[in-house]
């Protein structure tokens, strides 16, 4: 898989979905990434203090700037999205803040098109990319990846599944996906080859692609597409945010780790990995995941470039 991943994101709290006029409130997820209850964006997380040993690993230029500039596509709730005041919030944002604090820095999260984040790291526009990237061997050829979460591919249809779509037969169906994500790769590399082998029609255009995950959801709600595919916690969140207009199709599959993207060979990589592990060890990580109701995606060990596929 190649996530968000260039995967693996969703709905902005307080926004309205085009053509659906849906009021959004922060909710949680289920399936492979949560316990199924509601998120609590106002929940407090314990204060994070700097770790001198980890801070000593931060390169001099970053230390002098006093901040980590983080690229995120703020259309992928509950991981990264804009609240009703236009602030970028979500699981990844809280983790970015906590990582920076562990390193004696502050985090500056900047909204970016998903497909522009990794090129932005290469261009030194961002030090980190935290946007629900699935950690893959392909991605690790371009950037370092620090693992911090796990998620899988999931699907949704309109409530009641009016087109009677079978979970094991998506051939010929119109599937909405976000551009550059693992879900696009899944259709192109797995679903359509299987359809062709079975003598069935392929998913048109390897999926109906949109730059923003919010537009993916709108495409399904409006009836433009029959199915949407996204990361599991994003599907769960969309179902709740659309007030029951959607339902999950089948089970989450192909779970894989998310990774924080950094420049290949960056001396900052070890510092970030150490900060993530420290947050796991001291309980801050768990608090953040519980805040966004995605704790089922928790992992116990953060690693560098540990993709299995």
Automatic annotation (TrEMBL):
InterPro entries: Iontro_rcpt_C, Solute-binding_3/MltF_N. Residues 67-295 form the Ionotropic glutamate receptor C-terminal domain. Residues 1-23 form the signal peptide. Residues 67-296 form the Solute-binding protein family 3/N-terminal domain. It holds the Pfam family SBP_bac_3. PROSITE patterns: PROKAR_LIPOPROTEIN. The keyword Signal applies. Keywords: Signal. This is ABC transporter substrate-binding protein. It comes from Kitasatospora cystarginea.
């Amino acid at each position: 898989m190649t996530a968000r991943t260039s995967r693996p994101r969703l709905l902005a709290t307080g926004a309205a979905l085009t053509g659906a006029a849906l009021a959004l409130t922060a909710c949680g997820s289920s399936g492979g990434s949560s316990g199924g209850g509601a998120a609590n964006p106002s929940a407090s997380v314990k204060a994070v203090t700097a770790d001198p040993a980890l801070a000593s690993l931060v390169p001099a230029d970053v230390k002098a700037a006093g901040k980590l500039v983080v690229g995120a596509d703020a259309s992928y709730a509950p991981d990264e999205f804009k609240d009703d005041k236009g602030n970028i919030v979500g699981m990844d944002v809280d983790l970015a803040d906590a990582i920076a604090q562990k390193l004696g820095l502050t985090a500056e999260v900047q909204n970016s098109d998903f497909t522009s984040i990794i090129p932005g790291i290469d261009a030194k526009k961002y030090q980190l990319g935290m946007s629900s990237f699935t950690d893959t061997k392909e991605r690790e050829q371009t950037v370092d990846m620090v693992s911090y979460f796990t998620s899988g591919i999931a699907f949704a249809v309109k409530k009641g599944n009016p087109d009677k779509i079978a979970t094991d037969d998506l051939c010929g169906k119109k599937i909405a996906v976000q551009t550059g994500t693992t879900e696009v790769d899944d259709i192109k590399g797995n679903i359509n080859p299987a359809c062709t082998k079975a003598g069935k029609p392929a998913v048109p255009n390897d999926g109906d692609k949109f730059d923003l995950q919010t537009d993916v959801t709108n495409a399904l709600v409006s009836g433009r597409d029959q199915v949407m595919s996204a990361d599991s916690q994003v599907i769960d969140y969309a179902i709740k945010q659309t007030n029951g207009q959607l339902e999950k199709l089948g089970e989450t599959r192909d779970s894989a780790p998310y990774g924080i993207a950094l420049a290949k060979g960056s001396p900052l990589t070890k510092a970030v990995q150490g900060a993530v592990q420290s947050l796991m060890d001291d309980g801050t990580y768990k608090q953040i995941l519980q805040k966004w109701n995605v704790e089922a995606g928790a992992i116990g060990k953060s690693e560098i470039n540990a993709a299995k596929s």
